Every structure is written in C-alpha cells, then in structure tokens.
Amino acid sequence: MKAIITLLKSLLLSDYPSGSSINYYNGHLYIIGDDANKLLVLDSNYNEVSAVPFFDYEEKRIPKVKKADLETAVILDIDGGKSLLAFGSAATKERKTVVLLRLRDNKVQYISYTPFVNRLQQIPEINVEGATIVGPHLILANRGNKSNPVNNFITTTPDFWQRQEDVSISISKLIIPFSLAGFAGISELCYIEQEDVLLVVLSSEDTGNTFDDGVIGDSYIGWVKNISQKLNEGDILLDGIVNLSDADPAFKGEKLEGVCLSAVTDNGWYLHLVADNDQGESRLFHIKILLG
Predict the structure, then answer these.
(1) Radius of gyration (Cα) for the chain, nearest Å?
(2) Which class for 23: exposed (0-12), middle (13-18), buried (19 or more C-beta within 10 A)?
(3) Over the stretch 209-244, which tens digit does the pLDDT of each residue have?
(4) Distance CA 23, CA 192 (A)
C-alpha cells in the first residue's frame, strides 16, 4: 500500500521555538514547543488566537537542563469538558511532568508522573515522544536512538495519571519491515478513528542518547491498519511508510515532531504537522494523505 501526500500549505513560526506537539480541536490548533514557555493557539489558517503561559521563564527558550521537555499531548474528556494533557519526555528528573490544561478556562495543573515512569523498567532508556488515544487506550511512544535502536509502544489508560501505581501497562516494540537510510525514532502518533489506522511519525537524527540533539536526517509517516485489534498481540509491524522528503522537497531537513488530524473525507485525510529545526523556530505543514 502506498501513500499519496499533497502539501497544501507551509508556514515558518520564527518566534515560536522547538515545535514538538500539535493538536486540533473545535477549529483551533494547540502547539507546544519542547523548550517554549507557553502553548500557542492558532486558527486553521495559522493565525494566532492566543497563548497560554506554561512556565515562568522570560527568555524565548528554556535551557535544556531546566526544560520540562514537553514532547507530545492528547485531548481528552475530563469532568465533562475537554482538556489537553501534555507529556514531558521523562528522560531526566525535570522531564517527568505532565501538564493538564483545561480548555474551557485555560486552568493549568502540573503533575509528576514519576511513579508511572518507574514502572517502565523493561525499557532501557525512557524518552516519551508520542501519544494518542485509541478507544479506551492511551498509547505512548518511546523513541529509541542510535545506541538503543528500539521504538516502544506503552499502552495504558487515559486516566493513568490518577492511579499511577496500579494502572495497567503493556509494552510492545514497533517493527519497521522496510529499508531506511538509518535508524528512525518515533516522534509522534495520530489515530484515525474512522479507519482504525494508527499514523506513526518517525525521524532520523544523529544522536546516541535521549538528551543531545544531532544532525537532522529524514522524516517519515508510517501507518498500522486495524490497530485496535493489534494492541494486545505483542510487537506491532508498520504496514507502510513514506519518506516525506520524497513526497515534497519542502520536508527536507525538517525534523517532524507533531501531527494531528483535522478532517477525514472521501478524498483523503487532512493533517497538520509541526517541525523543529533546532534553531529556535518551528514550521507548520498542512497536508492531505491518501492511502491507495
């Protein structure tokens, strides 16, 4: 199965650093940078609507040793309303935090998820980079690197943060049965509920640990069909993958870190993506993807 990807729009956010997560809800895009001090809210045309302060830091970028490293987020129902739950990568002590944003009034809550992370002993290096909701399940993606070239899925429940000591956890590996130029680590997940397809964003980076950045390589979108039937079957194979640089040269040199779904039509799926260039900027992409 092949994917036809059409680039519809691209925009550089020169004043917003290190885009790592993007979510879509009610016509708005919620963007997070892993060293940004605020969450950015845009409309569907990429015009700024508002910003929500997350961290009390005056500079544009929070230093690497201090940042919470928010890498991924999901939107879920809590107490009858929508909230955004953003995850630190958990790669260091400072990064074992989740930030809960109540969308109706922008109330922010900070929660340590150290007890949950401590239970992930099967994974040698923790670096949470992706998340999505699949039915009653929350899937987190743990990114590997050149020294530990394994990507893992961590399946739990969306309320895990409320009962971290005893919530169910299962861990599986992502198998990529395709030839790539080098190791590609997971950088985000996105569930297409209407088709029961899991989209997996991966990127290659010349680094051998969970802390340092490296030279940016290629970014990819892979997919797993019938994902809800495969979550309890052990390791999960990608059914297909496409190199985004082959789809459009605009993706070359961009480290894709976030993806979200805005619409499903007969003509394809409409997605928004965010990339981090490691230079204190972010780039948005609006694409249509058609699996054929």
Answers:
(1) 17
(2) buried
(3) 545 555 678 999 999 999 999 998 899 999 999 999
(4) 13
